[in-house]
Amino acid sequence: MDDEQIRQLIDAVDDAGVAVMAVYGREIAVTQKADDSPLTDADLASHRALVAALESMEPRLPIVSEESAEIDFATRQTWDRYWLIDPLDGTKEFIKRNGEFTLNVALIEKGIPVFGVVHAPALPEGPTTWWGGRDSGAFKRVDGGVVERIRVRQLPDPDRAPWRIVGSRSHGAETFEAFCANLPRHERVSMGSSLKLCLVAEGLADLYPRLAPTCEWDTAAAHAVVTAAGGDVLNAETLEPLRCNQKESYLNPFFIVCGQRDGRWEQALEESLALPAANAQ
Ligand SMILES: Nc1ncnc2c1ncn2[C@@H]1O[C@H](COP(=O)(O)O)[C@@H](OP(=O)(O)O)[C@H]1O
Ligand SMILES: [Mg+2]
Question: Where does the pLDDT of residue 281 fall: very low under 50, low under 70, confident under 90, or very high at 90 and above?
C-alpha cells in the first residue's frame, strides 16, 4: 500500500463511519441473523459504503465482508490478496450505545493481515482511527487531529506496575477469568469489539486472551495494526501467528494478543486452556 492508497482507504472508512453514525443517532431497529447474532441498518449501510469504496480502488481485489461471506473455500484458496472487512464489529455494543464498536478493513496477503484500518466513530474522545501495515508502522488519529505513531509496551514487572489484561464486554467471561486467575498482579479492562487489540497496539494493555469464538473479520484489521506496532496475535494452542483463509470455516482458533513477546504468561494460558469451558469451542 502506498501513501495515496492508505489515505484513500482511511477516507473510505471515515465516510462509512458517518453512515453508521446516522443510524446511531436514531432509533436502532435490530434483526437476528441465522446464527442468532444481531444485525442493524448500520451494519448494512457500512457494508455497502465500504464495498463500493474498495471496488473503486486499484488494484481491484476480491472482498469478503461479514455481510457477504458466502464464498466457497475452493474459490478463496485461489486468492493471493483480498480485502477482509467487518463493517460493524461490536454490534451488541452499538445497540447498547456505549461507543465500543468499530469498522474494520484488512488487506490479506497469503493468509497474513498485512495492512489494516480500524475506525471507532463514537468514542468519548472523538472519532478515532488506527491503521498500520508491515511496511509502514502503526498510527492513531483522534478527531482529525495529529497523526501519532503507536507502539506496544514491554510487559512490566508486576510488583512495580500491574499487568493490564483486556477482555470482551459480552463474550467469554468464564475463560477470561480462568486465565486471569493464573496471572501475577494485574488489572482487568472490559472493552467491546476490535478496540481490545488496538489497546494492546497502543501499549495501553499488555494482553488480550480470547478463549472464546470469533471470526476472521473480527480480528484481521486490528491484527495488522498490532503486528505493525510490534506485537503479536498468536494461536492460543500453538503460539503460532494467526492466519486467515486456511480453511472452509471463518472461525478463528482461540488466540492471545500480546505486546512485546515475553513468555511470562504462557503458563497461565496453558492452565486456562486445560479447563472444560475452553475446550468446548
Ligand atoms: N459464537 C460465536 N461464533 C463466532 N463469532 C462470535 C461468537 N460469539 C461472538 N462472536 C464474535 O465476537 C464479536 C464481538 O466480540 P466482543 O464481544 O469482543 O466485542 C462479534 O462481532 P460482531 O459484533 O461483528 O458480530 C462476533 O463476530
Ligand atoms: Mg465482528
Answer: low
State the fold for domain 3-149.
Fructose-1,6-Bisphosphatase; Chain A, domain 1 (3.30.540)
Phi, psi for 50 (deg, rounded to 5): -70, -40
How far is C-alpha 211 from the chain's CA centre? 15
Q: How far is the CA of 183 from the centre of ligand 1 (A)?
A: 25
Ion ligand 2: residues, CB within 5 A, are 86, 89, 218
Give 101-147 pLDDT, tens digit per residue. 999 999 999 999 999 999 999 999 999 999 999 989 999 999 999 99
For the Cβ of 213 lying below 6 angstroms from any atom of ligand 1, the answer is yes
CATH pick for 163-279 out of 3.40.190.80, 3.40.30.10, 3.40.228.10, 3.40.710.10 = 3.40.190.80
The interface predicted TM-score (ipTM) is: 0.98
**Which of 215, 255, 281 most suits a substitution to test ligand 1, by most atoms within 8 Å of the C-beta?**
215
Q: Which amino acid is at 73?
A: F
By the 8 A CB rule, do 118 and 221 touch?
A: yes
Computed on alpha carbons and rounded to an integer, the radius of gyration of the chain in Å comes to 18
* Sequence ranges of the binding site for substrate: 66, 88-91, 218
Determine if the pTM surpasses 0.90: yes
DSSP calls for 57-80: SSS---EEETTB----HHHHTT-S
Helix, strand or coil, per DSSP, at residue 175 = helix
